[in-house]
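Thread title: Can someone regenerate the structure for this chain?

I was given the following input by a collaborator and told the matching structure tokens would be attached. They weren't. Posting the sequence so someone can regenerate them.
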Amino acid sequence: MMETKWLIEAASAIAQSTRMRVVESLAAEGPAGLPAGELAALVGTPPNTMSTHLAILARAGMVASDREGKVVRYRLLPDILRAMAEQLTSIADAAVVVTSDLSKAVPAV
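Best answer:
Regenerated them for you:
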């Protein structure tokens, strides 16, 4: 079995509605990203709560931040999402092969 700790951490990071909205919002903004305050207002979350959500996403490798004076701007790092999609597709493809093999081996009733 391949190492999946990173996948579990990444999936856990977006398995919460506010964080998923943050990821979607940052994806829509592109590489420029958004200041943390604007992002909080956009998803309807208090700034202190947004900081916690952004920290979780950053630990999972999904967002990066850049300081511009007093403003911290966040941007999406899409590579982890692509890696998640590839890993999950690989798992699904393996399941299809197993399911297909089983349907051939089991006689129809």
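The radius of gyration is 19 Å.
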